[in-house]
Amino acid sequence: MGRGKIEIKRIENLTNRQVTYSKRRAGIFKKAKELTILCDAQLSLIMFSSSGKLTDFTSNSDSPKPVFDKYQQLQRCDLWESHYEGMKENLNNQKEINRKLRREIGQRIGEDVDDLTFDELRGLEQNLVDSLKIIRKRKDHLISGQTETTKKKVKNLEDIHNKLLNEYEEKIAVQYALANQGGVSAHELGNGGAHIFAFRLQPNQPNLHNDGGYGLNDLRLA
User: Coiled-coil stretches, from where to where (predicted)?
Assistant: First the structure.
């Protein structure tokens, strides 16, 4: 049995529609290539899927422009005129937008305000006030961040200073303790830059004096 005749109407199921488009597109392009080879025909084929995806084929060229140019020449029409007019209109719109923006920028710095009405001047003033609020808010945020950074740096410097001071005081305390053990008074240590020596007696020396004390030669540096 042969296949039944398919009714030509829009396929409602999206998946089936895409599958059918893919299969038939391949068949159309195959026939186009065969026609180009067999008959030496110049052919350009452009297709858009329902999702907007472009597929094109052009015989003996990477661009369809030569085929379109030949078509325009033979049909005496301009395929690009409407497109050119659209681009020209879009360019004019962009120029007008640019002109308005330049005028607004100039008005924000006090230029070109002589022809403004009272309501326009009041609106411009309000815009400047709002802009100033945003600028001040951003400035305060930056100042706050810089202040916090400075506080952290000062805190780190204070911690380093306190640590060095504690180490110095501990060192001085150890030196005083050694000096006291050696019989040297704090007054004999001198100022802060004086060298500190700790002395200890050597009780096992054989040359003790008769009075049971120690001589000068019996003192040893600790």
Answer: 147-174
| Single-letter code of the amino acid located at 60 | N
pLDDT in tens, 157-197: 999 998 998 888 888 888 777 776 655 554 554 444 444 44
**74 dihedral zone (left: phi>0; alpha: psi -120 to 50; beta):** alpha
Last residue of a domain, one of 29, 56, 79: 79
The per-residue pLDDT for range 74-111, each reduced to its tens digit, is 888 887 777 788 899 999 999 999 999 998 888 888 88
Instruction: Please give the C-alpha separations between residue 115 and each of 3, 98, 107, in angstroms, as whole numbers.
Output: 78, 20, 11
Domain count across the chain:
2
Q: What is the model's pTM?
A: 0.35
Q: What are the beta bridge partners of residue 45?
A: 57
pLDDT at 199: 45
Residues with Cβ within 8 Å of 33's Cβ and at least 6 positions away in sequence, in order, are: 57
89, burial (CB in 10 Å: exposed 0-12, middle 13-18, buried 19+): exposed
Domain assignment present for residue 147? The answer is no
Amino acid at 61: S
Structural domain span for residue 63: 14-79
- Domain-terminating residue out of 79, 100, 120: 79
Residues pairing with 57 in the sheet:
45
